[in-house]
Design a protein that fits this description.
The structure holds two protein chains of two kinds. By secondary structure, chain A is of the alpha/beta class. Helices cover about 35% and strands about 25% of the residues of chain A. Chain B folds into three domains: about 60 residues; about 140 residues, no CATH class; about 220 residues, MetI-like (MetI-like fold, Orthogonal Bundle). Chain B is mainly α. Chain B has 20 helices and three strands. The chains are: A alpha/beta, B mainly alpha. At the A-B interface, helix 4, strand 6, helix 5 and helix 8 of A face helix 16 and helix 17 of B. The structure holds adenosine-5'-diphosphate and magnesium ion.
């Protein structure tokens, strides 16, 4: 862990999760973090943070803007490595494997931990090439038929196939916002990940497209460990099984979604959920 | 609150339909109209200068594309060219070509060959370059020997000037470049149709010459071409690679900041300084030949590099970061993200910037003067190591000659240079359109 972090007295109350969330009894933990901290230069964005995220379930990160949800999410696929000023401390394991182990290949990790961003960001290429790109660079397909199969399957899983099957060669950027976001999900699925991270995937979409994505997330839960950052409490309540509430760079409370929304343990969680700040 | 509603002046000021409000709207519209007028005025001003520039250059220079030539029935007499029957190159090079041409000229203008003075006057009508023209014809096809053939032969510079109206017939004979007898011959020849202005191919096929009618741009064009080739082969890959490294891979620290500041400073260094640098490094230190277009190309490369780097970096920065994240997110390595996604999107910008850098280099004169590209080069260079000149330098050299033929050639060469610049700019626009992709 960083020296800077170690020196710092823990001025925020440590999280006392009274009981293990019920979902953790049904699923094995996929991602486990211990004392994760993030600094941007001298500024600390995440204070020592421990959380267990279940496999084959949707976990939602909620909290007011600027509280470090995205920052923490980006630790899980080491996207923070691309920010020169960012420093990550602590330990994150996926299936027991330390992802900050110097021997680990970051590039492979990012394929195994897919990411969907706030603003849909399809490549300025055809729909087909958008999805085929990942499998191509990883050498997943032995021939064109293989590749086509991967593309079609990914599109089907992302619930986009029916809408675009006649225009796979037209540009991905020509789709509507919601379709573009599903294309990005298909693109992530195509490289066969275990985990899919979504950073406010619906914040740029209209309610109908949002509903479509939420449905999709619910379907994907069967096969993937999904972590979604959202500023909409309703969305967290609708799609997730586990909810984690962040505030000022700390994890205030984590628990089963139902329990969190009906009976939050912490005062700050309660205030936030009741809409008293944020 | 009560005050505001009570004060009628305030109420009026805040109402949308008061006179004051309407006056404010009018004022805003007037300000906008005025601003648009300034814009249009500035545009007119700029356009006027462009028009003046082009009309003067084209007005002076278009005649350089025409050159007066005599149509002579030349007899390639064997006894003059190769009296001993030999056809080897040595014999042909030494043959008395002037005599062949002059004989044909005397006949057609009716000059008395026996009169020494009259012969001299007649000889002055033909360019001194005709021997080369005839020799090259025969060298190319030796069968001509023994035949008689009509040939367009270059007239002397003064004849050309007269035909282009640059010589005043009314000034006294002793101060005129052509005497009365020569004037009469020229007029008769024009009437007969054997002296006329033809397209000046020589402008593009001759090298340097002290006679305007045999001075051309070929050496300069070839030299400039070699230099552009050197710049394109060196500045583009080095510049783009440097830009990619600095923008995408380099750590942001004091060293890269320093490098960045220095690149920006280099772009502002006066070009003549690059000439001095080239003289010291490439010629004095590395021992490369003076006047060689390779050295010119190297100097121009140094000068163009900052431009290419800055333009390429700007194009790379303009690619939205979300594209990089998307690529990294599916497990592309940093290099794959850059080469598969960022670079293709930045390419139109990079190409435009690069071509503009090349255009700048093509028009550059000062540094080339420092490294001896200002030489009098007659023979066309076949490699970048041979002496050459460059288009703008050729313009500079011709501009310092007073003769009428060189004045029009200066403007003519300017037109040619502007033509090349125009073509390159058009290419930049075309490439940008062609490769531009939306995201
Ligand atoms: N690249 C960065 N450089 C410096 N500070 C950053 C950077 N990204 C985020 N931060 C800071 O870290 C804190 C957490 O940001 P973020 O994780 O984006 O919050 P959230 O996603 O919860 O809105 C904020 O105070 C933000 O200003
Ligand atoms: Mg965020």
């Amino acid at each position: 862990m960083d020296a800077a972090v170690a020196e710092k007295p823990a001025r925020f109350e440590t999280v006392m999760t009274p009981a293990e969330p019920a979902i953790m009894k049904e699923r094995k933990p996929k991602i486990v973090t211990e004392g994760v901290t993030v600094h941007y230069g001298d500024k600390q964005a995440i204070y020592p943070l421990d959380i267990k995220i279940p496999d084959r379930a949707v976990s939602a990160f909620i909290g007011p803007s600027g509280c470090g949800k995205s920052t923490f999410l980006r630790c899980i696929n080491r996207m923070n490595d691309t920010i020169p000023t960012a420093r990550v401390g602590g330990r994150i394991t996926i299936d027991g494997e330390d992802i900050y182990d110097p021997a680990l290949d970051v590039v492979q990790l990012r394929a195994r931990v897919g990411m969907v961003f706030q603003k849909p960001n399809p490549f300025p290429k055809s729909i087909f090439d958008n999805i085929a790109y990942g499998p191509r660079i990883h050498g997943f397909a032995r021939n064109r038929t293989d590749l086509e199969e991967i593309v079609v399957n990914s599109l089907k899983r992302a619930g986009l196939f029916e809408e675009v099957k006649d225009r796979l060669e037209s540009p991905g950027t020509g789709l509507s916002g919601g379709q573009q976001q599903r294309l990005c999900i298909a693109r992530a699925i195509a490289v066969n990940p275990d985990v899919i991270l979504m950073d406010e995937p619906c914040s740029a979409l209209d309610p109908i497209a949002t509903a479509r994505i939420e449905e999709l997330i619910d379907e994907l839960r069967e096969n993937y460990c999904i972590v979604i950052v959202t500023h909409s409490m309703q969305q967290a309540a609708r799609v997730s099984q586990l909810t984690a509430f962040f505030h000022l760079g700390t994890l205030v409370e984590v628990g089963d979604t139902e329990a969190m929304f009906t009976n939050p343990q912490e005062r700050r969680t309660q205030d936030y959920i009741m809409g008293r700040f944020g | 609150m009560a005050d505001i509603t009570a004060d009628p002046a305030r109420t009026r000021a805040r109402a949308w339909n008061s006179d004051e409000a309407r006056a404010r709207t009018r004022k805003r519209y007037a300000a906008e109209r005025r601003f648009r007028m300034y814009g249009i005025a500035a545009l007119c001003f700029a356009t006027a200068f462009l028009v003046i520039l082009f009309t003067t250059i084209i007005g002076t220079g278009w005649t350089a594309f025409l050159q007066s030539k005599f149509l002579l029935n030349v007899t390639f007499a064997e006894d003059v060219i190769a009296p001993d029957g030999k056809r080897d190159e040595q014999t042909l090079r030494l043959a008395n070509w002037d005599k062949i041409a002059r004989t044909a000229l005397y006949q057609v203008i009716g000059a008395n060959e026996a009169d020494r003075k009259e012969r001299k006057d007649a000889n002055e009508l033909l360019s001194r370059g005709i021997d080369v023209q005839l020799r090259d014809m025969v060298l190319a096809s030796p069968d001509l020997i023994g035949q008689t053939k009509p040939v367009w032969l270059l007239a002397q510079g003064n004849v050309d000037a007269l035909l282009k109206g640059a010589i005043d017939r009314d000034i006294p004979e002793d101060r005129r470049q052509l005497n009365n007898r020569q004037l009469a011959w020229v007029d008769a020849a024009v009437d007969k149709g054997i002296l006329a202005k033809k397209f000046n191919t020589g402008l593009f096929t001759f090298g340097a010459s002290s006679q305007p009618e045999t001075a051309g741009l070929l050496v300069a064009i070839v030299g400039s071409f070699f230099m552009m080739l050197t710049v394109a082969l060196l500045a583009v890959p080095i510049g783009v690679a440097a830009a990619i490294y600095l923008e995408e891979f380099a750590p942001k620290n004091r060293w890269t900041d320093l490098i960045e500041v220095n690149i920006n400073n280099l772009a502002a260094v006066p070009s003549i300084v690059f000439g001095l640098l080239g003289l010291a490094v490439f010629i004095s230190f590395m021992g490369l030949p003076r006047s060689a277009s390779l050295v010119g190309g190297l100097v121009l490369t140094l000068m163009t590099l900052p431009t290419v780097i800055i333009a390429s970096r700007a194009a790379l920065t303009a690619v939205p970061p979300s594209i990089r994240e998307g690529a990294l997110g599916v497990g592309a390595s940093k290099m794959q993200a850059v080469f598969h996604h960022v670079l293709p999107l930045a390419l139109p910008g990079i190409m435009t910037g690069t071509i503009l850098g090349l255009v700048q280099a093509l028009g550059e004169t000062a540094p080339l003067l420092m490294i001896g590209l200002v030489a009098f080069v007659v023979d066309v260079p076949s490699t970048p190591l041979e002496p050459a000149t460059a288009l703008p330098v050729q313009i500079y050299m011709w501009a310092s000659s007073a003769e009428r033929g060189f004045v029009e050639r200066t403007a003519g060469a300017t037109i040619v240079l502007l033509g090349f610049l125009f073509i390159m700019n058009a290419l930049a626009v075309f490439l940008r359109r062609r490769f531009e992709r939306r995201w």
